[in-house]
Amino acid sequence: MGKTSNPTPREIGGAGGAGTYDDMLGAVSMARQPASNAPTWTSITRDGVTFDALAFDTGDKIPLFVQTSHGVQLNQLIENHIHWDITGNDAGDEFQFQITGVGAGIGEAFQSIGTVKSGDVVLAGDEMGKHNYLEIGELPAINTTVSTLFVIILERIAPDDGNDTTEDIIVYFNDSHPLLDTMGSLNEDSKS
């Protein structure tokens, strides 16, 4: 049998490989409620189980604090999305979310992530009680160090065409998918 070339333990996807994706979770249930325009804790029942979740009406927003892991590829765009449900079925109406905020690597000044909008979501009328996924857009490539911190303001906004649903959107998670290029870092505050 011939000798094979194995990647080092800290490389993902092999030497020079594309890497793999991971989750940077932003649990909205753990976020501090703003003084105004806050989503409402709403009791919902799914398949016989009742629990409270945050329901967003148009204009509701919440701050989330998300930090990159040590395995994240630096200086990359990071896809941002939400996992959602709805309080009632509302075929044909629409909703939209956006994120704004700032980000900074360790020792760096915070800089704006701009405003990133999801685009209008047209409801089919069968989303209630389902685990739905909505890609909002990309965080800019300002993750210049391990443990880059993002402060994200997640807000439900009116759809561009004005056909806003009267139903609340339940948001379980705001989540981002960064690309990993290592399993971690050799130092606590840098990749190498």
Number of helical segments with 4 or more residues = 0
Low-confidence stretches: 1-12
For the largest beta-sheet, the strand count, sense and barrel status come to: 6 strands, antiparallel
Report the β-strand fraction as a percent range: 35-45%
Structural class call reads: mainly beta
Percent helix, as a range, is under 10%
Output the helix-strand order. Answer: EEEEEEEEEEEEEE
- Mean pLDDT over the full residue set: 87
Gross morphology is: elongated
Calculate the terminal CA-CA distance, rounded to whole Å. Answer: 34 Å
Give the beta-strand count. Answer: 14
Q: What is the gyration radius calculated from CA atoms?
A: 19 Å
How many domain units?
1
What oligomeric state is this?
single chain
Task: Please describe what this structure looks like.
This protein is mainly β. The chain has one domain (20-47, 63-169). It is built from no helices and 14 strands. The protein has strands at 20-21, 24-27, 40-46, 49-56, 61-67, 78-86, 94-104, 111-112, 116-117, 121-122, 132-139, 149-157, 169-177, 179-180. Strands 2, 3, 4, 6, 11 and 13 form a six-stranded antiparallel sheet that branches. A hairpin with a 2-residue loop joins strand 3 (40-46) and strand 4 (49-56). The protein is elongated. Mean pLDDT is 87; it is low at 1-12.
